[in-house]
Design a protein that fits this description.
BirA Bifunctional Protein, domain 2
Length: 338
């Protein structure tokens, strides 16, 4: 048995030495170490070895297996090295490298990151919600009457089951208040959907950033201070901000926010950029009804909400003349923002 093992080792090493490619290497491995390989078959004969010789034969069997395995691995490494050398033989290492195309963030992502950064410094946390919403979260809980134009099928994308693509991210505010007791200070960035004709200033799918702050003693002064600080951080410390009385079903009082901005080569003018207001007590009542408690009792707390279009912010910040440029994926346009 010992002599047979020596013969197998000698044959294996000679065969491995003569190997020139991967297929021959695998063939040799199977031929000697496979289930029906010579060494495996020899090992099966251990049962016939006399008891007094089993230790020596078993030790020899392990030595042969280790030697063949090491030879196979060494040969494999040599073949890989030879293949690598052949692959690089035609390469001139002195040639300059080829530059790889550099990617960059989409302008909307730039705007979102900057806006979120400012608001997070002010203590706002990010909240998320589903894009497919219920009418209650999107309209009823926000004090939107049934005859409001936004609830018409000509303005909103409805599904057959009665759900809809959210028309604003205000629904995230409702879902957050359902789950969390005050104080609440959140921002809700995300997509919204409306049946708008796509043109230079409108898209049917767009991006919003809404905010909500609810606590004891929140006032209109807190709202104005928050938005004035935010817009001056985004557009510069000298940016003029004004609040015009307006109407929204879910806030009272409500305001439109305008900024006085100047495009290159043009006179400064007021641009409507956001909507805001103090949360209507009817919204708190709806939340309490859903929660089945009075955590958001208008007698105990107050709050403000605001919302703005990120697409509009991007147009103003980068001087983009047509909103459709943001969704056309034209590299000639996008590479300006790398």
């Amino acid at each position: 048995m010992l002599k047979e093992l020596d013969t197998i080792l000698t044959d294996a090493l000679a065969a491995i030495e003569a190997i020139a490619d991967d297929s021959a290497l695998e063939e040799a491995r199977v031929g000697f170490l496979g289930k029906k390989g010579r060494l495996t078959v020899a090992g099966a004969g251990m049962k016939d070895v006399p008891k007094e010789d089993k230790k020596a034969v078993g030790q020899k069997l392990n030595e042969v297996r280790t030697a063949i395995t090491s030879a196979l691995e060494e040969k494999k490494a040599g073949l890989v090295a030879a293949q690598d050398a052949a692959a690089f033989a035609s390469i001139d290492a002195t040639l300059p490298g080829r530059p790889l195309p550099q990617g960059g963030l989409h302008p909307l992502t730039h705007v979102l990151d900057e806006a979120v950064s400012v608001l997070r410094r002010m203590g706002f946390a990010i909240a998320e919600g589903p894009e497919i919403e219920t009418e209650w979260h999107c309209f009823d809980a926000l004090n939107t009457p049934e005859d409001h134009p936004a609830r018409n099928e000509r303005d909103t994308f409805y599904f057959e089951n009665g759900k809809l693509l959210r028309t604003h991210t205000s629904s995230v505010q409702i879902r957050t208040m359902e789950k969390v007791e005050p104080p609440v200070r959140i921002i809700a960035p995300g997509s919204a959907f409306r049946r708008d004709e796509i043109d230079a200033t409108h898209l049917s799918a767009f991006h919003q950033l809404e905010g909500l702050y609810v606590d004891k003693g929140v006032t209109l002064a807190d709202l104005k201070g928050t938005l004035e600080f935010f817009f001056r951080e985004i557009f510069g410390s000298k940016t003029e901000v004004r609040f015009r009385p307006h109407f929204f079903p879910f806030t009272e009082p409500s305001f439109e926010v305008d900024l006085k901005l100047q495009a290159t080569g043009k006179a400064a003018k007021w641009i409507e950029i956001a909507g805001c207001g103090m949360v209507d007590p009817a919204v708190f009542d709806s939340v309490n009804e859903a929660r089945k408690d009075d955590a958001y009792s208008p007698e105990k707390i107050s709050g403000f909400a605001f919302g703005m279009g990120l697409d509009r912010l991007a147009m103003i910040m980068y001087g983009i003349p047509d909103l459709r440029l943001l969704i056309e994926n034209d590299v000639r346009f996008l590479k300006q923002f790398v």
